[in-house]
Amino acid sequence: MDTGGKCGYLMCGTFPQVHQVYLATNSVPDYFVNAEKVEQLDYGKIFPKTGEEEEEDSSTRHCRSRPSVRDLLTTKPEVAIMKMEDCGLPMADIVGKLKPLEVLSLVKQILIGFMVAEKAFEFEHRDLHMGNIMVKHTEKDTLKYMYVDKNIYLPSYNLQVKIIDTTFSRLKFKRKVYYRNLSHLFNEGEIDVEKNKKNPLSHQNQTYRAMASVIQHDWPSSYPRSNLLWCIYIIKKFLHSRAIRKDKQKYASSVRKLLSAYVSILVNMQTMHEFFSFIYQKPELNRYVPIKMEAIQFNG
Ligand SMILES: Nc1ncnc2c1ncn2[C@@H]1O[C@H](COP(=O)(O)OP(=O)(O)OP(=O)(O)O)[C@@H](O)[C@H]1O
Ligand SMILES: [Mg+2]
Hints:
The structure is a single chain. This protein is of the alpha+beta class. It has two domains: 2-16 and 87-295, Transferase(Phosphotransferase) domain 1 (Transferase(Phosphotransferase), domain 1, Orthogonal Bundle), CATH 1.10.510.10; 19-84, no CATH class. The protein contains twelve helices and twelve strands. The strands form four sheets. The protein has a five-stranded antiparallel sheet, with helices on one face. The longest helix is centred in the middle third of the chain and has 22 residues, at 100-121. The protein binds adenosine-5'-triphosphate (ATP) and magnesium ion (MG).
């Protein structure tokens, strides 16, 4: 992501490069239709219930009220295909093998990436689980970001985060808002987290609900706090991971304390910029894997 518009300079490598986008207008090849993954698509997400459908038992629900995925793929005339950068491996697969300072760098990469993306596109991911954060090797020891009039530098430990899967995301580009209405994913009353405290949920599901509670069906509007809720979820995942749970690893307890402090601060913030400004001003919150910042030098 690289923009130099009226917001000043904005650049980060936290999101994949998209090389090409194709629109396939013929029917989809058989290998897609037959793929196991396609057969297992979640019908509820593709075809939200309209409320006008008659009640059906679970055995007939899919085939009667909604078209099959096979029908959809063979009759729908247009499919978008994106050719994008190889983003490495899902965080979910490698988190147990990470070292504490690598974890801290990856967390900071996510936080800075969101700060830049919020400024550039009012971007909200709205589905930031460990399968949608990828990690790849980088030769660069230091990652560079640009934020308005500042260059930002961060040690990489030769790992780079790439955030994928914008299916649920929201952004604004050239005054047009792109978003997905997600209200159908929540049953009546679920959006009010206060009313649902008795219902024990996984933290991931709690995060969807907390996000919906902030957004309150207003999916087109900008709620940068949704990014903070997802970052809290991700940092807590790291806090429970083998990488920093045990003190045997050097820096484990220091990184654990720092990330716990980040969670407490994020809870009270509304935007990633607000969070970043807060931690950057306090040296004790920018230790071990320090973020460095300098003014961009404009030539001429
Ligand atoms: N650019 C990429 N580079 C490497 N692997 C990728 C890339 N994009 C997707 N993948 C792989 O494909 C998986 C699914 O991709 P993605 O999250 O975009 O689709 P999805 O069907 O919406 O998944 P889910 O519903 O599980 O979130 C990822 O978890 C990752 O393993
Ligand atoms: Mg995904």
